[in-house]
Every structure is written in structure tokens, then in C-alpha cells.
Design a protein that fits this description.
- There is one protein chain.
- The protein folds into two domains: 99 residues, no CATH class; 151 residues, 3-Layer(aba) Sandwich (Rossmann fold), CATH 3.40.50.
- 34% of the residues lie in helices and 11% in strands.
- The chain has eleven helices and ten strands.
- The protein has a five-stranded parallel sheet with strand order 7-6-4-8-9, sandwiched between helices.
- Helix 2 links the parallel strand 2 and strand 3.
Length: 281
């Protein structure tokens, strides 16, 4: 089905959870939410075939989808939450902050003042700072050097993939390893990475110049709505109990399905045993 189901290695993580070969995951019969948003969970610029199911991260997202007229929806939980269930242990020591500047994507470039953002980060973060850039910004010497010259460690988790090319099954694994080595996670916009960091045990923060995309359309209410509706997550310091509850709710970490149920929804086969025979159930 849709190539976005394989973004960030999502289908690979879910195949592993379901006991299938994560090197070559089956196609998901439906559209899998691939990032957090404030609408129906789907990318607003994608076209969808009517009647094909939507697999959404959370009950909150499903309710928003219903309000927008989407009916064939199923709550399955975020692939990130399944990865944490598969790899629950983290390092005992954490230090510093991993910071995710708002980034563009293959179709749009981000517009903003990185120098100003660096000043804001320096004013807030006391410990060592790792800046994680999207691959476009990471390959841009001009953008990357802003942060390197500021003395920050700069990393990139990899490619998200697209059109069944440049797939990167290790993306989420690298992100998890980075988050687990840091005490804090921060960004200038509330995003998937902040929710991921909270679930992985980081203290979150959202502050600084939010920047914008060239030609950005404030769909579903844009940044004003995000700051209003998720105000508990904004600021250099936030309430950790409230942040954790919001991350669980938005990622559907309390709604993970058993492997057999997930396979049924995706129309995936039963796992085979080591001799290649179907497992009897």
C-alpha cells in the first residue's frame, strides 16, 4: 500500500513485534499514521483511496479524524511505543539535552534565524547540547555549521525514505539510542520527537523561535492552536507528570494491540517457525 507506511522504518518495527521478518515487512493494507499532527493523523497533502482503513496512533487522533469525516479508522498505537515495548531498557546515566530544530522536508524548506535560536538554546540549556538535524539540513553545510560553530554536537538519525526508496529500518533505533543518553529533549515546535523523548524518559521543553516553512499553510489551526491546546508542554520547564500523560495519550502507548490482532488488522500472515512451517494456533 502507501509508501509512507515505511517511513522511519515503522513497518519494520511492527513486523518485528508481530513475529515476522523485519528485513522485508509485508505491505500494510491501509494507511499508517507516520507522524504526530493536530488533525486526522494523515498528511494533508496525500491522496487517499476511499474505504481503505486508516491506522491511527491514538484515540485522540481517531476522534479528530471522525470530526473531519474519516470513518474507517483503527487505533493501533505509534510504532515508537511498540519499539519501546521491544527494547524497554535504557542506560542508567543521562546528561545534557538533545535539541530538534524545526525542519523542512523534501517539498519545502524551513525559513528562520538559526543564530537567534542558538542564543535561546544557550540561555536555557546548562549541560552539553546535541542538535539533531533532518537529513536536508544536515547535508546543508550552511545550516549544520551554525550549530557546529556554536560548540554543539550535531547528529542526524538518517533518512525517512520515500516512494519505496532509501528506506532506513534503523532510523527509530538510532533515535532511541540518542534520546536515552540525554536527560532533556527540546524543540522550537511541539513535534513527534518531543513526544518520543518523553516516552523514552526525557524531560521535555518547547521554546524558541518556531520558524516556518516557505509557503506554510496553517492547516487545522496551526501553531496558535498547538500552543493553546497543548500549553502544558510549552516553556523551558514543564510539569513532568502532565507531559508523560499527554505523551501516552497522543502516542497511544496505552492502546498497543497484541501481535495477533495487529496482524489481523494489517492483513499480515501468521509467523512461520524456524523450519518455514506455519505456526499452529
Amino acid at each position: 500500500m502507501h509508501h509512507a507506511n515505511h517511513y522511519y522504518g515503522h513497518s519494520h518495527v511492527l513486523a518485528r513485534y508481530c513475529g515476522l521478518d523485519d528485513r522485508d515487512p509485508p505491505r500494510i493494507h491501509g494507511y499508517l499514521q507516520h507522524g504526530w499532527n493536530i488533525g486526522d493523523g494523515m498528511a494533508y497533502d496525500h491522496e487517499f483511496v476511499p474505504g481503505v482503513p486508516l491506522f491511527l496512533w491514538s484515540e485522540r487522533t481517531r476522534r479528530r479524524a471522525w470530526s473531519l469525516g474519516r470513518r474507517q479508522t483503527y487505533v493501533v498505537g505509534a510504532p515508537w511505543a511498540y519499539l519501546l515495548a521491544l527494547e524497554p531498557d535504557g542506560p542508567p546515566q543521562r546528561e545534557g539535552t538533545i535539541w530538534y530544530p524545526f525542519h523542512g522536508w523534501e517539498g519545502q524548506q524551513v525559513v528562520g534565524d538559526h543564530g537567534r535560536l542558538i542564543d535561546e538554546i544557550r540561555a536555557v540549556e546548562p549541560g552539553p547540547v546535541t542538535v539533531c538535524l533532518y537529513w536536508q539540513e544536515y547535508l546543508s553545510t550552511r545550516v549544520r555549521q551554525h550549530y557546529e560553530r556554536a560548540g554543539f554536537r550535531v547528529v542526524c538519525h538518517g533518512y525517512r525514505g520515500g516512494r519505496w526508496r532509501d528506506l532506513d529500518p534503523g532510523f527509530l533505533h538510532r533515535q532511541l539510542a540518542e534520546l536515552r543518553r540525554h536527560r532533556r529533549v527540546a524543540s522550537n515546535r511541539l513535534c513527534s520527537a518531543v513526544f518520543y523523548g518523553i516516552l523514552a524518559g526525557c524531560e521535555p521543553a518547547v521554546y524558541g523561535d518556531p520558524m516556518h516553512l516557505a509557503g506554510e499553510v496553517p492547516i487545522w489551526g496551526g501553531q496558535p492552536r498547538i500552543r493553546r491546546q497543548w500549553s502544558d508542554l510549552h516553556g523551558p520547564q514543564v510539569d513532568l507528570t502532565a507531559a508523560r500523560a499527554l505523551a501516552v495519550a497522543e502516542l497511544g502507548a496505552d492502546r498497543l494491540l497484541p501481535p495477533a490482532e495487529l496482524r489481523r488488522l494489517f492483513r499480515w500472515p501468521e509467523p512461520a517457525d524456524r523450519h518455514g512451517m506455519e505456526v499452529c494456533r
